[in-house]
Structure formats: structure tokens, C-alpha cells
Amino acid sequence: MIPSVRHASTTPPPKPRVLAQPDKFRPPSHPSRLRSKTPRYQYGPELTQEQKTKKQYPHMMPPEGSFMHWFLTNRTIHLWISLSILVSLVFGVWLSEFIHNTPYRDLLPPNSMFLSHPFSFIGRWAEVYNMHVAYVSSQTAERRKQKVDDVKKRSDYRKAHGLETAEGVFGGWTAKTEEETRGPGFRYGEQVESGAVMEIAKGTGESVMTQAGEADETYVDFEGKTQPLRKKWFGLW
Fold this sequence. Notes:
Keywords: Membrane, Transmembrane, Transmembrane helix
Largest sheet: 2 strands, antiparallel
Mean pLDDT: 77
Radius of gyration: 50 Å
């Protein structure tokens, strides 16, 4: 017969461990025994002062002495970059406006000419720009002349209808006389010159004053004829 084998242990099972009841409540942050001051993890030896100045940390300022630190902290190079950007923007706006508004756009040289003949390219650009400046000056002078003529016609109209007196705070929108546009120096010189002429020839002076008075009482209409000035009471009749 084959004897039977029992795989069960004959020793009794051990008793469960029972923790001693604490004398008071101790949270995990305040155990009964002090923690060791020795750090749990070791990250290597402490860095020296020289190594700290050259250590590069992520998302932080580069260390002193490096090229990036000089580039980010140098004010001169930042000023130069800012002014270069502003000047380039101003030049670009001026160039686009000039090309869009100039009537001599067809006379501008092609861009490929700058590499083959740079001096001729710049010279032709200068000639076209001078022509553009002359054109703009002539247009401005023509507009100014039209405005001056308009003001002169308005002044003659007001004078013909007895409205030449100053109105409002600024004296109305009429053309100023030649005496009003001149400064005090011209007026004083004219007074001295007229006084000398009066002393030399009194008779002729009286006739000149008479003609001047008559000229003040007349005006030139739109047809170029000299008409007597009509005086109106209170500017109505």
C-alpha cells in the first residue's frame, strides 16, 4: 500500500499583530519620533558659485556671461533694432504711396536694373522723383491760386453790395487789403516816404490823395468795369 501524504502544516497559525494603543491622537504630520534630517534622495554634490553662474535652467534667464544674456540685456542693440524697424516701415509706406500716386510710374526703371546697373537705376529714380515733386508743387500752387481768386471775388462781391465791414470775431471771410498784409516796418517806411514826397511837391500830393480817395469809393465788377461804390444804410438799403 502507498502511504498517504498530508500537505497541511501541523503547527498552529500565528496570532495577528496588534498595535499598541497610543496615549493620544498623533496625526501623520506629527509622529512620536522625529524624522531624520538626512534627505531621502541625493542629487549629487552642491554646485559652486562659478557653476551657478553658468547653469542654464529651463524657462529662466540665461546665465551671465553668455551670448543670450548679453543680447537680451543690451540696450544699444535693442534701440538699433527698434529704429531699423521704424525706418523700414516709414520707407515702405512712403515708397508704396509714391508709386501709387505719381503720374510718372511708367518712367520708373525695372527692379532687375538695380543689380546690373545700380548707379543708372538710382539716377533714373532721382529724375522721376524730381519730376513728381515739380508736378505736386504746380498742383498745390494752382489750388492755392484758385482759393485766392475765390476769396478776392467774394471780397469784391461784399464790397459791391455794401457788406465790406468786418463781421464777427474774425472780421468775416474776405480778402485782406495790401496794407493789412504788410507789417509795421513797411507801414512806417511808407509814411516816411510819403511825408518826404509831400514836402517836395505839395500840389501833386493833394492830387494823389484825391485820386486815392476816389479809388476807395469805387470797385471793379466781374466784367472788369470800374463802378461807384453804393452806400447802404445798415447794410440793407
